Amino acid sequence: MIYGDGVRLRAVEREDIPTFVRWFNDPEVLHYLLMYRPMSMADEEHWFEGLAGRQNDFLFAVDALIDDRWVHIGNTGLHRIDWKNSNASLGIALGEKQYWGQGYGTKAVRTVLRHAFLELNLHRVELEVFAYNPRAIRCYEKAGFRNEGTRRESHYHEGRYHDSYRMAILRDEFEGALSAGS
Ligand SMILES: CC(C)(COP(=O)(O)OP(=O)(O)OC[C@H]1O[C@@H](n2cnc3c(N)ncnc32)[C@H](O)[C@@H]1OP(=O)(O)O)[C@@H](O)C(=O)NCCC(=O)NCCS
Hints:
With about 180 residues, the protein is of the alpha+beta class. Helix content is about 30%, strand content about 35%. The longest helix is centred in the middle third of the chain and has 15 residues, at about 105-120. Coenzyme A (COA) binds near residues 93, 104 and 135.
C-alpha cells in the first residue's frame, strides 16, 4: 500500500475487473480517455493476466477514505517507464463520477508522484491531456505539472479534431512544491 492524504494506492486485484468493465464502458468517463472501444469482461481479464509480467508499467487502484471507509474510486499508474532516462508517463481515471471535483484526483496524483520521485528515483513524469478537459488540466497544475506544448488537432472525437497538451513535472519542481507545503 502507498498511503497519501486521504487516499491510498494499492495493487489491482482480479475482483476489480467487473468494476473496470462498468467504468470503461461509461461514455462520460471514456470522453476523457484515449480508449474508445467497448470493453468486455474477456478483454479486461486478458489485460489483467498481462499485468504481472510488466516491469515498466505500474498500475494502482485508487482508494479514497470516505466516511471512515476505503472506497475504490479509480485507477492511476506510471507507464512506459524509461529506466535509463528516468522518466515515465502518468495516467489517471476516477471511474466513480460522483467523486469528481472533490480533490481526490489531485491527492492521488501527488501520491503517485511521491512514489515516482522518492521511491523509484525518477526524474521526470509526463502526460497528455485533451484541451477540452479543464478539470484534469487544473488537477495536474495543482499537483505541479507545467504545460510544455500543444499537439494541435491530435485527437479525433465526436466528429472533429481536438488539441491536446503535453504536461510534465520534474523531480526538483515536485520537491520544491513539497517544501513549500502545497
Ligand atoms: C481528471 C480527474 C483525475 C481529476 O480528479 P478530480 O478529483 O475530479 O479533480 P480535483 O477535484 O482534484 O481537481 C479539479 C480542479 O479542477 C477544477 N475544475 C473542475 N471543473 C472545471 C472546469 N470545467 N473548468 C475549470 N476548472 C474546473 C476544480 O474546481 C478543481 O480545482 P480547484 O481545487 O482549484 O477548485 C478526474 O476528474 C477523472 O478521473 N476524470 C475522468 C477521467 C479523466 O479525465 N482522466 C484524465 C485523463 S488525462
